[in-house]
Amino acid sequence: MSTILVTGGAGYIGSHTVIELVKAGYDPIIFDNFCNSKPAVLARINKICGKNIPFVVGDIRIREQLEAVFNNFKIDGVIHFAGLKAVGESVQKPLEYYDNNVNGSRMLLSVMKQYNCKNFIFSSSATVYGEPDVVPITEQSPVKRANCPYGQTKVDVEYMGEELQKADPEFSIVLLRYFNPVGAHKSGLIGEDPKGIPNNLMPYLTQVAVGKLKELSIFGNDYPTKDGTCIRDYIHVVDLALGHVKALDHCLNKAGVHIYNLGTGVGYSVLDMVNAFSKAIGYELPHKFAARRPGDVVQCYADPKKAKEELGWEAKLNLDDMTADSYNWQKNNPNGYED
Ligand code: NAD
Ligand code: WQD
Q1: How far apart are CA 268 and CA 289, in angstroms?
Q2: Fewest CB atoms less than 10 Å from the CB: which of 36, 50, 168, 243?
Q3: φ and ψ at 258, to 5 degrees?
Q4: Alpha-carbon distance 175 to 259, whole Å?
Q5: Which ligand 2 atom minimizes the distance to the CA of 198?
């Protein structure tokens, strides 16, 4: 039984991953400063798991708070979700993003090394590929300089992990490049709870569906795609969570740098998403076309073969599951996690 520290474990992807870790027989410990989540999620996680999961309120940038966890628990590995993730905000507040995401990761790796804990799984992103030259995107595709501070922090932490592994070859560094996580746990107890008006497509769709927002603006319908709207690889958050379990099963104590795309391999356009959502709710979701959003890539979807061959993982849930589960979460929790 391995004990896994889950930084950012109270967040959207972290909370779903904690549940799958427990189901797979791992012992997770949640570490979070609640800067983008609410303590109310903890009781929901415990309810789904049928037991209390240890949690620590702390900030990854504060050495003493991390050391306290490593002193109290014998930690075998770390899954590192903690970070800030809003692209637009990162342009406004680049220093906060570098501090939280890059300095925070550096502090975490430094404390891990100090305690001889050398298994690190990092939440990276397809954003490291920038505008891809070829789709579907394999792990061999070049990592590019990002077009926003958020994306660049992902590139920087990937490099930091790789350099550390060169210097200390006992490290197992796993870089998981997520495509577009959506959906929620089937129970409707946990899901994505963005602050304010959502930036991302799926939470925007769900908030229109429950009447919190009037209509979706589709950013651009003149892209060189089948219907003029951008294409993404949407992946159900529970599939993504299971990808972390498989990555742990495979990479724990396996020294090296291991890089995997976590996506479905299928690209859907924004209009495909609107249509799927309309089907789920039984009427046409209000939407209009608007100007392109600066910085959007035209199409981005994964070649997920490597994860299938090496980890034995592939996404199982389809677009209907994604829309139904997102909607179910939003309907049951119109205001997200209320304290
Ligand atoms: P989230 O904001 O829901 O979860 C992140 C959690 O980390 C939050 O609970 C937050 O309170 C916590 N946190 C942030 N800074 C912290 C700090 N300094 N110390 C302790 N805790 C801190 O985000 P998410 O969607 O679950 O994303 C998790 C990770 O996956 C992030 O690193 C994100 O960049 C990455 N990622 C997300 C997506 C996506 O679309 N959701 C895509 C690719 C990669
Ligand atoms: C998807 C599509 C929009 C909202 C972002 C980050 C990326 C990753 C995931 C962390 C795009 C369109 C959206 C709306 C719209 N995060 N859209 N109207 O941009 O692929 O990725 O989140 O790593 O780094 O950049 O996801 O959900 O914002 O957009 O038309 O109100 O939906 O233009 O084509 P994106 P998204």
Answers
A1: 17
A2: 50
A3: -120, 120
A4: 5
A5: 31
Residue among 100, 296, 326 to mutate when testing ligand 2 (max atoms within 8 A of CB): 296
Strand bridging mode 234-236 / 119-125? unpaired
The enclosing H or E element of 258 equals strand 256-262
Give the distance from CA 312 to its chain's centroid: 20
Reported pTM: 0.99
Strands 231-232 and 268-269: antiparallel
φ, ψ of residue 279 in degrees (nearest 5)? -60, -45
Q: How confident is the model at residue 141 (pLDDT cuts 50, 70, 90)?
A: very high
Task: Look at residue 288 and give its three-state secondary structure.
Answer: strand
Q: What is the DSSP letter of 173?
A: E
Q: Quick one: 167 exposed, middle or buried, by C-beta within 10 A (0-12, 13-18, 19+)?
A: exposed
Q: Which of 81, 90, 128, 156 to mutate to test the pocket of ligand 1 (most atoms within 8 A of CB)?
A: 81
Residues with active-site annotation? 150
Q: Ligand 1 centroid vs 4 CA: distance in angstroms? A: 17
Q: Distance, CA 201 to ligand 2 centroid (Å)? A: 6
User: Would you say 67 and 107 are in contact if contact means Cβ atoms under 8 Å apart?
Assistant: no
Tens digit of pLDDT for each residue in 79-123? 999 999 999 999 999 999 999 999 999 999 999 999 999 999 999
Which ligand places an atom closest to the C-alpha of 192?
A: 1
b (16+ CB within 10 A) / e for 290-309: eeeeeebbebbbbbbebbee
Q: In the chain, what is the greatest distance between 2 CA atoms, to the nearest angstrom?
A: 57
Please write the tens of the pLDDT for every residue from 23-37. 999 999 999 999 999
Distances (CA, A) of 332 to 55, 134, 150, 210, 270: 25, 40, 31, 10, 25
The runs of H, that is alpha helices, within the chain are: 12-23, 40-49, 63-72, 87-92, 94-97, 104-114, 149-167, 201-209, 237-251, 270-281, 305-306, 319-332
DSSP 45-82: HHHHHTSPPPEEE--TT-HHHHHHHHHHS---EEEE--
